[in-house]
Amino acid sequence: MSANLALHQIAVGTDICHVPRMVRIICAGAGGDASPSPSPSQGRGRLERFIQRVFDSDEKPYIEGYARPLWTMSTRERSSSSQEHSVRRLAQLLAGRFAAKEAVNKALSPYWSGLRHITVRLTPDGQPYATYHAYNKQDGQAKGTAKLSIAHDKDYAVASALLFLPTPMPWQSAPTPEFTGLAGREMAYE
User: What is the pLDDT of residue 8?
Assistant: First the structure.
């Protein structure tokens, strides 16, 4: 039995992010540590710079919705135990999204994409996925969607990405007319 087979590279990427790293970004003063700062805008500035550098315009409203209540507080208030839950929740969100973007970026090799060109989204039922726009000198541009899995456990967020690249694998560069595919079935190339 012959079937047409579209040749694409299946790519997998995984990344892990330390949640306390994101807590430091949220609670940081001008010196880059988690010590209290005299100005609430200094800690907000570091968080805003991180959001600007990593997230695109479609993601920012969602992220800022979690961050906005913390922006009205001083760095000392953000570091207090009464706000620990809000800071932790935002840190886990940032760590999970950052790990997801890095996982997609790793799966995109040999393509290259900046983190702002990878957008993490949720389906209506809450399943994460990413859209990406990447570039490779040899093959040009690639746009697509990646299936994501994001998990959190105390101090770590981990993400895996699965996507299909338009580049064939190296052994597919000079295909033979037919080969025996999965389960011993014959598959024909186009």
Answer: 67
Instruction: Annotate 26-94 with DSSP letters as a single string.
Output: HH--TTSSSS--S-HHHHHHHHHHHHHHH--TTTHHHHHHHHHHHHTS-HHHHTSGGGHHHHHHHHHHH
Q: Which two tokens stand for residue 12?
A: 């997998």
Q: Helices 84-107 and 19-27 sit at what angle, rounded to 10 degrees?
A: 120
The whole model's pTM is what? 0.74
Taking the C-alpha atoms of residue 105 and residue 115, their distance in angstroms, rounded to an integer, is: 8
Nearest one of 81, 80, 90, 88 to 40, comparing CA atoms: 80
Phi and psi, residue 164, nearest 5°: -115, 120
Residues of the chain with pLDDT under 50: 1-5, 29-43, 169-172, 174-190
CA–CA distances in Å: residue 111 to residues 18, 43, 105, 141, 189: 26, 34, 8, 8, 25
